[in-house]
Q: What sequence folds into this?
């Protein structure tokens, strides 16, 4: 006789999406991306150049003591992180009541990413390391540490430590059995904090820019932001000087940044692979491949090995496909630049795709869990406090079950994914134009990348429309 | 932890309860006496193994809200045995391996008095042996037949919700009598569907029904049009228990296939727990029947204790949250947490349970095994219950409802006896 097992795979949002003619959305998305390529290829070069240089000046100001302000923000951030780790150890065991998992997985990993895409690189000031490092090395014998750190950061290391760190993070988020368990997460956050403190003390602040995964991640995301801050005309000793704030076309900051190098390219591909794998690993198709019944999902523990292999395979396949595309670009562009340089240049055009999929993928869970985060902030240590008056906040969870809201979210997701790919097409073309100098050659050389982008549009929309286990914090 | 409009469980309710005890002004009835007699022992700590994340999170959320509401009520009335109740919640990620770890963590690290609340059967089946090894009472709210089957152990009970075998056994005669005797079953092709196939077929054929066809559907299927032609033309009743994201498509395509010339249709609300019956794709269900454990939609004539239960948990007339009317509850399951907590209260108070340990657990378990019935009322709002000590399983009334104007209206309530089946186990013979 068959032993009864759980029946309660909840219907979830996926059921409503299955009622839509999703294949039309997928085809429509592909057509829009292809059409945007034609549009960009045929548009006069000066029109594109105008879009690139479009600026709306917001104002200018000088910030005396800007560096001190930045250090203060960092110290405050450190205090918050320490308090969160304490809450993780001492507070509620419930991952939806303890502020640590809510802040890490919802406010920071999802919400901060949104903020960086809107306002630029906040993590440069809000990271928990630089403030303390600057205070400790501001005077006395340690002052010399700052001027010449004990070890010089090796050039050859590039962003590779950040790639390795982000891979560990992705594994922890997607595959570890209990990344939301407050105690487990407290250990992970404390370990992360100390590791990078050690890095900063040994190599100086350059460590953060090069090797700390989220300094790299948030900097990459900030290249999408429409808000730009001009460098000061005259640099003062305290980092002050008049800076101008302006608005520009979102994502076009990508055309102004330095080429990220091979390790930077690997980093962007890893981000894209990990968010894509998060989507893929929830689909019934993936579970079917693993011979797992999605209606009695066996939990994360049972899938550690296949999902680890899947994450690695996703990264490997993406790197391979990208490499092949770049090889073709190199041939079609007929430029003498080495493939590695082209690879690290055109990876900038994948940044909008990686971020667009991140935004779309996490949107529903963000809408729900951010409310839990606000509530947890009222009583972070489960002491019966009501610090921000939200202790009794009712968390609206029908974003995940009400058809009207599910459809609204789904259409937003589709728009984000298609929009991100259109932006990618534009960025890739602008980069090619710069490389080849001729519109026709630039357009022709972009065909392999455009095919890749159309393919990724189809994949992204398919991941959102195929039956999947609910996207919720999971473990 | 929260419920609608209420605060976090754990210490907060304990503190509120403490305040109520201190005031003492509105503590009614016999609880006052017991509260005074046994006060000073500190809170009774109940380990709540909850599916906070993972595939069971939707159920977990409502289990948690119901638990919060029940604990608040218990504490307002003086706690259990005069001790305020403190809930220690641990998320198991709906992951069987973590389930066993959570049981151990609650027992060894948090030193709770008892553990309750587990829902998903594969988590229960993986966690129960650990509870048995640690010799701590483990009260599940799972609806599975695994408790009554004898597969688990002396420490595992299901006193707050009936099992799937009882549910099928109770409604089968009504289906045969009122809807038709020639039945075709459509079910997901895995253990849950197989239970319905086996239990229903057994009861139906014993009572003069005919199973016209058994149509298993692979769990990952998303299009069902090719299965409907396999329903024999002389089928009088189509019995369906589809679950998962394909359900709405299933119903829509069933409608497209049968149209107005459909057989009678009977389903289990498990398919649509947490889903508004007015959702797109479900039009075809109008006039069909469902098993419910507890009627989701409020009726004008519902008893006062049902009204009270709905108010305390924060459920509106459509079975959705009062504060989020689009958030439909898992109404036919979550009452199990409420009723389990009141069974715990009764067993702790009658057994004189004080603290974790072999002697007190023995008293608790033997007292619980000695229970025979629970009367309908505030503590058991779903209805009266019969408890079979040797099976560690509770039995109750089942409800048949009809979809009318995109709501469910009760058309039949079974007797408790209708759901009883010959027992296959006797846990009381196992050593403690």
A:
């Amino acid at each position: 006789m068959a032993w009864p097992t759980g029946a309660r795979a909840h219907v979830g949002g996926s059921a409503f999406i299955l009622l839509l003619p999703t294949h039309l959305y997928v085809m429509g998305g592909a057509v829009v991306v292809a059409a945007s390529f034609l549009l960009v290829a045929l548009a006069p070069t000066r029109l594109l150049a105008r879009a690139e240089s479009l600026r709306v000046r917001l104002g200018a100001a000088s910030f005396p003591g800007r560096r001190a302000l930045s250090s203060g923000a960092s110290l405050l951030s450190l205090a918050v992180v320490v308090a969160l780790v304490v809450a993780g150890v001492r507070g509620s065991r419930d991952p939806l009541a303890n502020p640590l998992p809510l802040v890490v997985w919802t406010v920071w990993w999802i919400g901060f990413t949104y903020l960086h895409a809107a306002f630029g690189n906040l993590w440069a000031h809000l990271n928990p390391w630089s403030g303390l490092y600057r205070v400790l090395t501001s005077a006395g014998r340690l002052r010399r540490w700052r001027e010449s750190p004990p070890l010089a950061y090796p050039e050859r290391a590039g962003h590779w430590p950040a790639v390795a760190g982000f891979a560990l993070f992705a594994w922890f988020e997607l595959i570890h059995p209990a990344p939301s368990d407050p105690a487990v997460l407290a250990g992970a956050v404390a370990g992360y904090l100390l590791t990078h403190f050690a890095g900063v003390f040994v190599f100086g602040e350059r460590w953060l820019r090069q090797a700390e995964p989220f300094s790299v991640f948030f900097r990459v995301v900030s290249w999408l932001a429409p808000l730009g801050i001009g460098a000061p005309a005259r640099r003062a000793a305290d980092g002050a000087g008049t800076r101008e704030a302006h608005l520009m076309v979102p994502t076009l900051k990508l055309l102004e940044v330095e080429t990220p190098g091979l390790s930077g390219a690997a980093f962007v591909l890893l981000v894209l692979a990990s968010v894509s794998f998060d989507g893929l690993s929830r689909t019934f198709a993936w579970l079917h491949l693993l011979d797992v019944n999605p209606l009695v999902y066996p939990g994360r523990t049972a899938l550690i090995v296949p999902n680890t292999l899947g994450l690695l395979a996703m990264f490997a396949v993406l790197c391979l496909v990208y490499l092949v595309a770049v090889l073709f670009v190199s041939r079609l562009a007929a430029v003498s630049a080495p493939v590695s340089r082209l690879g690290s240049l055109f990876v900038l055009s994948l940044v909008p795709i990686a971020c667009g999929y991140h935004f779309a993928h996490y949107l529903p869970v963000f809408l729900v869990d951010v409310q839990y985060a606000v509530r947890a902030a009222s009583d972070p240590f489960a002491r019966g406090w009501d610090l921000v008056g939200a202790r009794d906040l009712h968390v609206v969870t029908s974003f995940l079950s009400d058809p009207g809201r599910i459809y609204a979210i789904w259409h937003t997701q589709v728009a984000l994914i298609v929009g991100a790919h259109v932006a990618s097409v534009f960025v890739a073309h602008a980069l090619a134009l710069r490389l080849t100098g001729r519109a026709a050659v630039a357009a022709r050389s972009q065909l392999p990348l455009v095919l890749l982008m159309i393919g990724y549009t189809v994949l992204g929309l398919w991941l959102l429309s195929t039956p999947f286990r609910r996207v919720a914090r999971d473990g | 932890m929260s419920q609608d409009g209420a605060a976090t469980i754990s210490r907060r309710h304990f503190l509120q309860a403490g305040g109520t005890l201190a005031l003492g002004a509105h503590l009614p009835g016999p609880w006052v006496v017991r509260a005074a007699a046994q006060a000073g022992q500190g809170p009774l700590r109940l380990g709540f193994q909850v599916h906070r994340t993972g595939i069971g999170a939707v159920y977990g959320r409502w289990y948690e809200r119901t638990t919060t509401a029940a604990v608040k009520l218990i504490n307002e009335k003086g706690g259990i045995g005069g001790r305020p109740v403190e809930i220690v919640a641990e998320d198991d990620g709906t992951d069987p391996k973590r389930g066993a770890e959570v049981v151990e963590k609650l027992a060894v690290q948090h030193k709770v008095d008892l553990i309750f609340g587990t829902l998903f059967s594969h988590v229960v089946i993986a966690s129960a042996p650990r509870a048995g090894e640690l010799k701590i009472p483990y009260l599940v709210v799972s609806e599975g037949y695994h408790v009554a089957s004898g597969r688990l152990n002396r420490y595992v009970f299901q006193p707050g919700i009936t099992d799937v075998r009882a549910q099928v056994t109770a409604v089968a005669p009504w289906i045969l009598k009122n809807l038709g005797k020639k039945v075709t079953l459509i079910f997901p092709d895995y253990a849950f569907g197989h239970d319905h196939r086996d239990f229903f077929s057994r009861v139906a054929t014993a009572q003069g029904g005919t199973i016209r066809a058994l149509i298993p559907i692979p769990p990952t299927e998303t299009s069902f049009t090719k299965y409907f032609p396999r329903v024999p033309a002389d089928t009088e009743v189509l019995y369906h228990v589809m679950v998962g994201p394909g359900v709405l498509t299933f119903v829509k395509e069933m409608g497209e296939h049968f149209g107005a010339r459909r057989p009678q249709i009977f389903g289990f609300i498990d398919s649509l727990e947490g889903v508004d019956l007015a959702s797109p794709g479900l039009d075809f269900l109008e006039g069909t029947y469902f098993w419910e454990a507890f009627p989701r939609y409020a009726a004008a004539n519902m008893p006062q204790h049902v009204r009270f239960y709905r108010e305390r948990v924060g459920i509106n007339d459509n079975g959705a949250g009062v504060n989020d009317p689009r958030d439909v509850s898992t109404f036919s399951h979550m009452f199990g947490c409420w009723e389990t907590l009141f069974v715990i209260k009764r067993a702790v108070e009658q057994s004189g349970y004080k603290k974790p340990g072999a002697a007190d657990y023995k008293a608790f378990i033997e007292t619980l095994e000695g229970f025979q019935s629970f009367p309908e009322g505030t503590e058991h709002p779903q209805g009266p219950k019969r408890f079979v000590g040797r099976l560690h399983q509770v039995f109750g009334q089942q409800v048949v409802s009809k979809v009318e104007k995109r709501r469910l209206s009760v058309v039949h309530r079974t007797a408790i006896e209708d759901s009883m089946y010959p027992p296959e186990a006797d846990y009381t013979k196992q050593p403690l």
Notes: The longest helix of chain B spans residues 331-351. Confidence is low (pLDDT under 50) at residues 1-40 of chain B. Chain B touches chain A through 83 residues (CB under 8 Å). Chain B has eleven helices and 15 strands.
